[in-house]
């Protein structure tokens, strides 16, 4: 069991909410972790700073927050030479990386998993020119939809705000030109969305693709040629696994451990729900780069 851990929690959640969540989880964690240090974020970048500054001093970093706090923490931990293990207490709206790992969304159960039943699992992270991501890289429709989400409706409606935003975006999203260099293959085409997936969950929705694995050293690259309600139905409402190559689909799939993407103009790029501007990126999988506390994967 871990002797020394750091718990990072989102101070922007509100004092009462933070106190309530801590009262549900901290005693469970402290019962098994002799030295548990609490760090409260106050502004964007704090979680990344805490991880870079103190990550090598502890055996475990526990992140209590949503996808943004997890993304920051990943970017603080990934470059370290001596990386601690990572655990997540999912306290956000979508909690996509936690979902991809099958971590319980109930905070007490997630804390009990860390303290009593946790299985350490090595998973891939992905490095780009400037940042790291754990779950996905996307541009086009996905970035436009995410960027236009109203924060009030996001808080009230949760995952459904993503669907509402996507529906609004469909009629407005233009195609863009891109070039993908995957090994010795070069693809030049137009699309409404490019998506590089390491994890399976986006906007609290699991993509029904068995080939997406967090520890195989490969990214699933999805090129969406045209958008429409059929596309949304395929992505958001598919109830069974989908063979994208055999189905008559508007989505083209590739798998790769690295690639270079060039866009015809600067666009919003969505990394795990955080937005950046760019027109090119080099994307490389760091196979089994970090150990996470998660349930034993189903065989």
Automatic annotation (TrEMBL):
Residues 1-132 form the DAGKc domain. NCBIfam families: YegS/Rv2252/BmrU family lipid kinase. Its cofactor is Mg(2+). It comes from Jeotgalibacillus salarius. Pfam families: DAGK_cat, YegS_C. One of its GO terms (molecular function) is ATP binding. Signal peptide: none annotated. Keywords: ATP-binding, Kinase, Lipid biosynthesis, Lipid metabolism, Nucleotide-binding, Phospholipid biosynthesis, Phospholipid metabolism, Transferase. It comes from the Bacteria. This is Diacylglycerol kinase family lipid kinase. Belongs to the diacylglycerol/lipid kinase family. GO terms for cellular component: plasma membrane. One of its GO terms (biological process) is phospholipid biosynthetic process.
């Amino acid at each position: 069991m871990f002797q020394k851990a750091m718990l990072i929690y989102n101070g922007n959640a509100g004092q009462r909410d933070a106190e309530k969540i801590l009262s549900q989880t901290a005693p469970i964690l402290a019962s098994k972790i002799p030295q548990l240090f609490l760090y409260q974020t106050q502004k964007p970048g704090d979680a990344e700073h805490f991880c870079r500054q103190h990550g090598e001093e502890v055996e475990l970093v526990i992140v209590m927050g949503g996808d943004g706090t997890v993304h920051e923490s990943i970017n603080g931990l990934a470059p370290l030479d001596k990386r601690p293990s990572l655990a997540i207490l999912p306290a956000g709206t979508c909690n996509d990386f936690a979902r991809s790992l099958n971590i319980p969304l109930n905070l007490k159960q997630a804390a009990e998993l860390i303290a009593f039943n946790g299985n350490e699992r090595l998973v891939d992270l992905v490095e780009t020119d400037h940042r790291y991501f754990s779950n996905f890289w996307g541009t086009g429709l996905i970035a436009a939809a995410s960027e236009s989400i109203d924060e009030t409706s996001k808080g009230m409606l949760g995952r459904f705000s993503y669907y509402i935003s996507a529906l609004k975006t469909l009629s407005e999203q233009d195609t863009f030109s891109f070039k993908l260099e995957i090994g010795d293959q070069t693809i030049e085409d137009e699309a409404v969305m490019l998506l590089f997936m390491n994890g399976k969950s986006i906007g609290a929705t699991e993509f029904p693709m068995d080939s997406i694995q967090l520890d195989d050293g490969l990214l699933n690259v999805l090129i969406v040629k045209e958008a429409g309600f059929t596309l949304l139905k395929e992505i958001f409402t598919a109830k069974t696994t989908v063979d994208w190559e055999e189905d008559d689909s508007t989505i083209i799939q590739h798998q790769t451990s690295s690639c270079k993407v060039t866009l015809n103009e600067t666009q919003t790029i969505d990394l795990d729900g955080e937005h950046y501007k760019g027109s090119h990126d080099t994307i490389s999988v760091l196979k089994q780069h970090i150990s996470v506390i998660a349930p034993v994967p189903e065989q």
